[in-house]
Amino acid sequence: MLANGCAQAPVSGAYQNPQTSLQNQPMRSNEQGIMEIVRQLDDLQRQVSEMQGSLEDLDYKSQSTQDRQRALYIDLDDRLQDLERSISALNSMNIVDEDEILLGELPVPGGTDQENYQAAFELLKEQEYELASLAFIRFLSSFPGSSLIDNAQYWLSESYYAANQFQQALDQFSKVIEYYPRSRKVSDALLKIGYCHFELGDWNQARSIFEKIQNDYPDSTVAKLAEQRIKVLNDRNL
Length: 238
Prior knowledge:
By secondary structure, this protein is mainly α.
């Protein structure tokens, strides 16, 4: 009876059929595998979207670069054509000879400020320094309201410097800074003032100017040129 009672005892609710548990394990494994594949697909889709966005951005930047280059080419071509027209116009004008310039005549009598400025500048490029200085002096008195007035003052100074008239050049370069403090030529004029002091043997003044340029215009071309002159001063123990 005891044996029969044991045989007929009810099955506990906590007991699980081992065969059923084994059957459930592959199902859970499949579900986890599917979820992992879905996660990987989502990750790949995200990466593809990011790559597509990057490609679109690169394509836009490339197109923008091409547009800018095209605009620059067009602008350069326009400038070249304007320059050619200016040169042709000057060649067709009655530019006065040396004697008339010495008497105080404009290079292009009756011409515009642009035409006379260009004529004076051509004299400077041809190393006709005396005539160039006279032409620029006449320009300054004839066109005081010209937008080219600061440039004319600078190139007048340069005509003296190129002729090794360093004291005259120093006086004229100083006027660029004094009269036209907002001009883009100020830094160049300041460098040439330093050069003039250098050529005149004013070593301390030259060094002071070059150091000022390095402080006021760092990482600029004039600062690099000033540094070169300071090196010369140092090498010569001046």
